[in-house]
Amino acid sequence: MKRKFISVLTAAVMVFGLSVPAMAEETPSMDGSLVVIHTNDMHGYFETSESSIGISGVAGLKDYYEAQGADVLLLDAGDFGQGTPLVVYYEGKNAVDYIIDAGYDAITLGNHEFDYSFDSLLDNVKTFTDAGVKVLNANITYKESGESCFEPNAVFDFDGYKVGVFGLGTAETMTKASPSNVNLVSFADKQEMFDIAQAQVDALEAQDCDYIIALTHLGVDPESEGRRSTELAAAVEGIDLIVDGHSHTVMDGGEKVGETTVVSTGTALAYVGTVVVNEADNTSEAKLISAADYAAGINSYDAELAAKVAADAEEVNTAYSQVFAKTEVPLQGEREFVRGQETNLGDFTADAYLYTARKYAEEHDLGVTVDCAISNGGGIRASVEPGDISMNNLIEVFPYGNTVCFATITGAQLLEILEASTATTPELVGGFPQVAGIEFTLDISVPFESAGNYTDSTYAIPANPGSRVTIKTVNGQPFDPEAQYTVAVNSFQGEGGDSYYQLTNNTYFCDTEVLDYDCLIEYVNSLGGVIGEQYAEPQGRIEIIGEAPVTEPVEEPTEEPAEEPVEEPAEEPVVDAEKPAEGTYVVKEGDNLWKIAKEQLGDGKLWSSIYELNKDQIADPGIITIGQELVIK
């Protein structure tokens, strides 16, 4: 595709960095450099905005580096076609077109690529491959034949400098996508996956590859322990770079594990990553560039692609713009909350499931009493701000098109579901239960004990249901493990998705075929079209007590040689008038929450704790400003 630019290049990006001088008359040559541009977890955020570079910016960045003479490889680590009305409306097919038009060289598949159906995924893969975009995955096979579903690797030859890329996907897809969409395939997991990765490295080395990249959708979340990208780096020799996705982790500068660099950009194109490799000695530097820095600096966007996205967005906005309700209170649906604690939007969602299931059972004279409802926190994808609510808002929050179902199970099975769904709490987990008609206590001071995994699942079976979770009441009555309870859920849960396997061992099951967002519309209409003060705060259905046990690493004692005492000259005290107060940090140029957490707390994954302490002044975790004073504890 011939490229047209919205604006000229206004600055130069230096060979080993993304600092942008005000103006540069000449662009320095990058001949002899490989630039790996990488994205992950775009989740349908293809429009350019203050907080998103957009897909036209990604295309512009690739052209920018190619104009400098660099060898450029553009990669995506999955979860691109689900998450916003823009892509849900077209069932992700427009996302495929955008990625092709942006000039991507290869992608791997995230769990959300399986959301629409396996046949739809295969159609998308064919579209990619017909256009020359490699779809790489080495650990997904057909159950019946054992054959690989996708191309495992590819070699890109830049005038003799050969780059080998192979792909891996998370086995969590077996339960993070609807099980019916993955019932024909198997995912090699943990050590088996690592062995496959080592074989891929060996095969690429045999083809004389100079640089080897693992393009993975694995993440670094605690719930993914045993299959994380950092564990892959430690287990497999010969990987130079891991381009990762899944956990939405912002890794500015990457994370070094042995000789391997692991990189991830977060989500929603808030950042685009670059890894600049010196082809002479394979030394490299990883950087992230934010939407704001890109707009202020390089500011190069593909005009044709931007126009294409804008036209699609206008069609979607027209279709989904009708206002049907309003909320007087902010409804909390951010990942950092709905996956680890009760929220008011979680309460509202579960109440809506319960309302719809009870109404359906009554109208169809089923003779069933629906006792309670559970919504998995991972199914809630965004918050809702006070004001009008349109279909656009609803589909941003509930993009999957699940239906409301209900199933009858025993109290013992219900207890197991809640125990399994909070196995990693306080660490975030997609299965975390937002509930209605249930009151329970979770004691996080008690370690979770596993009895293995559920069938075709990465979720653990609780060895002792009730050791962490105590159910107080169901439908207003004391909990009875021997009783039969009918539970309203969404169809993803009803198929055994996430940690909800026991719902498939039911004695009664009904799919209302009412879409989840239609259910929410029905429920808010029953409230007079207004979500009011009754949902201002979480309603106290879940009580989390205790403190999670901390396992300190055991360090081997080392004997230090004795040193002669040295008398140091006394120093005059230095008074820094601009030094921030103890326990605070002043944001400087190039900072993001991951980087601050890594420098100040020793672990970039603790960025969410900084966000929670400062959420009164941080509206979006991906956007902080220079000079902002943050509380750090």
What does this structure look like?
The chain is of the alpha/beta class. It has 17 helices and 30 strands. A 6-stranded mixed sheet has the order 4-3-2-1-13-14. β11 and β12 form a beta hairpin. The longest helix is centred in the middle third of the chain and has 20 residues. The two termini are 50 Å apart.
Low-pLDDT ranges: 1-25, 553-579
Total strands: the figure is: 30
Number of helices: 17
Shape type: globular
- Radius of gyration from the CA trace? 25 Å
Strand arrangement in the largest pleated sheet: 4-3-2-1-13-14
Structure at a glance:
This protein has 633 residues and is of the alpha/beta class.
Task: Compile the SSE list and pairings.
Layout: E1 33-39, H1 54-67, E2 71-76, H2 85-88, H3 93-102, E3 106-107, H4 118-130, E4 134-135, E5 140-142, E6 153-158, E7 161-169, H5 173-176, E8 185-187, H6 190-206, E9 211-217, H7 229-235, E10 241-243, E11 255-257, E12 260-263, E13 271-278, E14 284-290, H8 291-296, H9 303-320, E15 323-327, H10 335-338, H11 344-363, E16 372-376, E17 387-390, H12 391-397, E18 403-410, H13 411-421, E19 433-436, E20 438-443, E21 450-453, E22 460-462, E23 469-474, E24 477-478, E25 484-490, H14 491-494, E26 508-515, H15 516-526, E27 530-531, E28 542-545, E29 584-586, H16 593-601, H17 607-613, E30 629-631
Parallel strand pairs: 1-2, 2-3, 3-4, 7-9, 9-10, 10-12, 15-27, 16-25, 20-28
Antiparallel strand pairs: 1-13, 5-8, 6-7, 11-12, 13-14, 15-17, 16-19, 18-25, 18-26, 20-23, 21-22, 23-24, 29-30
